[in-house]
Amino acid sequence: MNKLLVPILSVLAAIGFAVSVYLVFFYTPLDFTIDHDSGRLVGTSLFFNETIMYFHVAHAFVLFTAVFIGGIASILYLWKRKPVWDDLAAATIEISVAFGAVVLVTGSIWAKAAWDVWWQWEPRLTMSLLLWLILVGYVLVRKFAGPSADRVAAGMAIFGMVGVPFIYTMVGQDSHPGSGANGVAFTLKGRMVVTFWVAVATFMIWFVALVITRVQGTRAEREVRELRERALDLGVIE
Amino acid sequence: MLRHALRIAWKDLRIELRSKEIFMTMAFFGALLVVIYSFAFPNNPAAVRGSVPGMLWVSLAFTGTIALGRAFDRERENDTMRALLLAPVPRLAVFVGKAIAMAALILCVAVIVVPLLALWLNAPLFDYPLELVVSVAAGSLGIAVVGSVFAATLLKARSRDVLLPVVLYPILLPLFVAGTKCTEALVAVHPNLEVAHYWMGFLGIYDAAFLVLSLWVFESLVIE
Asked: Which residue of A has its CA nearest to B168?
């Protein structure tokens, strides 16, 4: 079972990816209406490049889930000092760097279509960027800090979690489509809902598969290191 | 606990008073920064009003991190950090003492750098001295608190000199933004005290939040 889990999840994600690409381009109508009086096309703020939104928001969902899990795991690691929490935090945060990069890039493309600028210092963009910088810093610390990397990284995750909401309150007006309770996820209509949640599920499954693989990799690394040390002690290898 | 903390802070400040190493080098470094700014950025009065808040807070960030790194290096050289942590005082006292000493040191450097900014760039920084001093003090305190936690945690790490800013700046970013906006409101053509007070309050809340968090996690971060 355990050996089959990652392949099964990966296959599911691959199927989900193909299905969601199909749904995005051939199944879901674009979100606009024709105004009867003027005969002009009226788009919602989503209409601009709507197709990219399904991947953008799905990746953002995964990003925030990953960061949340990573933060909780970091707290648990500092508290209990069990390597399993450290492995989980390292894996989720490392992978969230990739998802964060996708969120920023797809968001930029969307923004060029909707706002006619690639970047705007708007709360959610600034917050996502700061979050991503913290994640990259975390990975750098893990890679280069040596023996105390686990503690520094855990501290960074916890301090970062507290710091990120600050930035949200401090820069300008939120011009993202649908903030808070009117969030994009709750205002979609008809076929858009199906496509949206298929995309979210796909990337969530993909994320879980990646995390499991990463944790297994870390464990394997540790086992090899311990075996090597034992072999050195016994004089089997030099 | 506060007595122990003050004693540790006094120990650090006394070392510094005798050698003056960090203060002298950082003040000189800060002065050099101001010279570089005055050549690197447009130097007319209108442009200075726009850029001097950023210069002030960038100087604070640079001098603060280097000072932190050097100050904690002293504890590493003879492995005295271990001795401090083993001392029969609450570990929180060690942290509070270190943070007080660092805040004092960063403020001393700011006392040199900020007037130099006003002098060499003709910046109207001292039109509202009280607000300026309070916001810079709050900023220094925030840098010292968060910085002490991570400088202490990074003590044994490889390449800690580069990692300290890598870790600190993303976490301190809200503080720098708030500080810059506060100074911006003070040096604008039409100074807006209401905005400045809002950002001073923000700095206060940031400091309080991170002080509580630091007190809470310091011990579990520095223990191996």
From this structure: A156
Using alpha carbons, select from A9, A75, A56 the residue that is nearest to residue A184.
A56
A148 touches chain B (CB under 8 A): yes
Q: What is the 8-class DSSP label of residue A30?
A: P
Q: Is there a contact between B120 and B34 (Cβ–Cβ < 8 Å)?
A: yes
Task: Suggest the residue from B76, B161, B164, B173 to mutate for an interface test with chain A (most A CBs closer than 10 A).
Answer: B173
**B125 Cβ neighbours under 8 A, 6+ residues apart:** B52, B56, B114, B117, B118, B132, B183, B186, B187
Does residue B153 belong to the interface with chain A, where contact is any CB pair within 8 Å?
yes
Distances (CA, A) of A138 to A74, A103, A209, B167, B168: 11, 18, 21, 8, 11
State how far the Cα of B160 lies from the Cα of B167, in Å rounded to an integer. 10
Q: Do A148 and B217 touch (CB under 8 A)?
A: no
Place of tokens 């002009």: A40
Mean pLDDT of A9-16: 92
All residues of chain A having their beta carbon less than 8 Å from the beta carbon of residue B181 are 170
Mutation target among B171, B172, B215 for the A interface, most CBs of A within 10 A: B171
- Report pTM: 0.86
ipTM over 0.90? The verdict is no
User: What is the Cα–Cα distance from B136 to A67, expressed in whole angstroms?
Assistant: 32
Give the residue among B97, B108, B107 at the shortest CA–CA distance from B72: B97
Yes or no, beta carbons of A148 and B159 under 8 Å apart: no
> Of all helices (H) and strands (E), which one includes residue A127?
helix A123-144
Comparing A144-153, A212-221, B136-145, the range with the smallest average pLDDT is A144-153
What is the average pLDDT across B190-199?
89
Tell me which residue of B68, B55, B66, B54 sits closest to B28, measured CA to CA. Answer: B66
Q: Which of A60, A24, A1, A3 is nearest to A203 (CA)?
A: A60
